[in-house]
Amino acid sequence: MQYMATHRPGGGQPVERRKWSRFRYPDTLISFGVQLGVLVFLGVSLVYMDVRLERLLEFGQRFVALIADRYYPPELSLLSEARYLQAILDTMQMAYLGTLFGLLLAAPLAWFASFNMTPNRRFLYPFGRLAIMGCRAVHEMIWTILLVSILGFGMLAGALALTLFCIGFAGKLMSEEIEAIDKGQVEAIRATGANELQVFAYAVLPQVRVAWTGIAIYTWDVAFRAATVVGFFGAGGMGWYLQRYVQQLESQRVAAVLISIVLLVTVSEVVSAWARARVAQAK
Predict the structure, then answer these.
(1) Between the CA of residue 71 and those of 76, 79, 248, what are the distances in Å?
(2) Cβ atoms 96, 217 nearer than 8 A
(3) Model pTM?
(4) Which of 246, 258, 207 is nearest to 79 (CA)?
(5) CA-CA distance, 220 to 201, in Å (whole number)?
(6) How far is Cα 240 from Cα 262, in angstroms, rounded to an integer?
(7) Mean pLDDT of 106-127
(8) Could you give all domains of the chain from N- to C-terminal order, each with its CATH number?
């Protein structure tokens, strides 16, 4: 559709009237070629991976049959055992420590990695970017495996793996918030003769304080979910029980562990959502 201006009979402001034109799709041969290439690639991928649609349609029925035959009824008495309750507490502590140390390290790295506010673009900027990207590039499970092989089994490896995970996760979000600030306050503080640290403390932090608080809460929520699984690779906590029962084919106990993980993650989601809502109200 195109618009053309016409004048009212009695004068006054012109009125825009629609002029009909043929809708052409796609606009160019390049657009058509890209879309066709995507569809061809999708079809080739389905054939190469031997994806059979009839098996996907039967997935729900097979899943229900598997749960009924192997995992039902779950052995819920496991959830009241003192050792398992201690494992739950260990998991929460591991998530808390990983989040705390990760955020403490992510904050200065985010400052260094922000292009508009980094104290030194030649050295600190690439260092901050490389540190954050390096932590994000490796999955927390891989970090756990590497640290367990170095430090041995236990919560220390899990807490360090979650720390590295939180650095990469929160550092990227925090640096993006810094790059979106209003430079007017920064220039005003710099005009007083403040150094880089004072500019960051009095011009940057007040603008990103609320956003960083929300990022910290979300980081803890994600780290808590990861902490329930890193124990599967030797970091202790609930994941150790999950690994043990999976290897011993104790399916009913596996179901009980999975139920406890879902319940804890649900509680964590509710608490983090409430905290984020309170932070949003403080804006």
Answers:
(1) 11, 15, 14
(2) no
(3) 0.72
(4) 258
(5) 24
(6) 16
(7) 86
(8) 2-50 (no CATH), 76-281 (1.10.3720.10)
